[in-house]
Amino acid sequence: MDISQLDLSRLQFATTTIFHFLFVPVTIGLAFLVAILQTWWHRSGHEELRRLTRFFGTLLVINIAIGVVTGIVQEFEFGMNWSQYSRFVGDVFGAPLAMEGLVAFFLESTFLGLWLFGWDVLPKRVHLACIWALAIGSALSAAFIMAANSWMQHPVGIDTDPTTGRPVLTDIGALFTNPVFTWGYAHVLLASLVTGSVLMLAVSAWHLRRGSSPEAFVRTAKLSLLVLLPSSLLVLHVGSHLGIVETTYQPMKVAAMEAQWETCSPCSFSVAQTGGWTSSDQDATKIIEVPHLLSILATGSADGQVTGLDELQSQYEEKYGPGDYTPNVPVQYWSMRTMAYLATLLPLLALWGVWLWWRKKLLTARVFHSVATWSVLTPFVMNTAGWMLTENGRQPWIVQGLLLTKDGNSPSVSTGEVLLTLVVFWVMYLVLGAVWVHLMRRYARRGLDETGAGVDDDGDPSDNRPVVLTY
């Protein structure tokens, strides 16, 4: 196996997956919030809420359109870059991926079309049901994908075919009761609500700071805070318990996220460290250690034992044969901290906003408006770090304990071919990313007013087309 070709294939799939995952939480979270907005309008009849629904619905549609394009590439990569992997897991992955395509994706796309073109055509209740079906479809789509991915982290519900040596799915229910799936999926849903609510809050705060339709955007600011506060607190709780689940089924992943080479009990958590990233250099300079915290995160007990990387490496060599079974430690270490540190800031932002709301200063709190606007970057960095933590921590396994990543590659694909397509994908995704940012920024800055005219970037009325008509 040409290792450089393997590395390029991994880099290519990492590129497409991480880029695609920028859109997934926005779609799930924003679809839910837009559905709440439309329900609010349906019950109250306020025209202002109707315009807000279409305003944020425009951002949702832009995100779905570009997100779908980025996700299609991954399906081709399974067959072209990872043919050995596809053969190995085909009898397992076929079920959840078929469900995602035939049920969730078609549910999502069908009702997106009905909702998009059904304004003033469909009965109000039917049209409202469409946006809720879209929200449910996007959440279901994530469920099937997460079920497949969680199986890679912790294979369940299978037997081994004695002829081929490949896993065969015997209990589909086990896929959806896999502890890695149940807690991981809850974590993704909550992270999506956080992402959608932060996006809505950021856009609302931008308009409030400029005095653009303040009576309208204060409504969406309050709605986003109502969703952000509980979801940002719950995502911390679920993420903490997910660490305990991972300790049970993937102890190497948890030990690597702390660069813990020696088995310890109790174990402290370092806020930051330098050095200690490899087995030949295990002496780290730890900056601010929090006693017992790693034991709590990994086991739920203040005195819980965390098995070190050295001991796990020995166990894996004895069980699976010679090899390096330690993932990239610095990636694990900093991905975990990036995700955790940013996640702790969001409840503080939500509490700040709720406090201003209670003090009736939400309309005039310009410092909060500025901070809330820039906070839109936070969930994207947080989600990316979480995804890297999950996927890098499984290495060198592509299916934990069953198939090594190096054995899942396509041996007939040359290094030059992977490099060429990698460069092409980078260019394509940079263009798509620029288009996405431009469209989201452009339509997010178009405000609302009584006449339906747009508002330019300076917050002054202009002759721009109304955003509610840009479909």
> What is the rounded distance between the termini?
50 Å
Q: Please tell me how large the radius of gyration is.
A: 24 Å
Helix content: 55-70%
Largest sheet: 2 strands, antiparallel
Parts with pLDDT < 50 across at least 5 consecutive residues: 450-471
Neighbour order of strands in the largest sheet: 1-2
* Tally of strands: 6
Beta-strand percentage range: under 5%
Number of domains: 2
Q: Classify the secondary structure makeup into a structural class.
A: mainly alpha
Mean pLDDT comes to 85
What is the H/E order?
A: HHHHHEEHHHHEEHHHHHEEH
Protein described:
The chain has two domains: 3-248 and 329-469, no CATH class; 251-326, no CATH class. It contains 15 helices and six strands. With 471 residues, it is mainly alpha-helical. A hairpin with a 3-residue loop joins strand 5 (397-399) and strand 6. Helix 2 packs antiparallel against helix 3 (47-80), helix 3 (47-80) packs antiparallel against helix 15 (415-444) and helix 8 packs across helix 10 (293-299). A two-stranded antiparallel sheet has the order 1-2. Strands 3-4 form a two-stranded antiparallel ribbon.
Layout of helices and strands:
Blueprint (H helix, E strand, L loop, with lengths): L2 H19 L2 H21 L2 H34 L2 H35 L6 H30 L4 E3 L6 E3 L2 H6 L1 H32 L3 H36 L1 H7 L11 E6 L10 E6 L2 H7 L9 H12 L8 H30 L7 H9 L2 H16 L4 E3 L3 E2 L10 H30 L27
Antiparallel strand pairs: 1-2, 3-4, 5-6
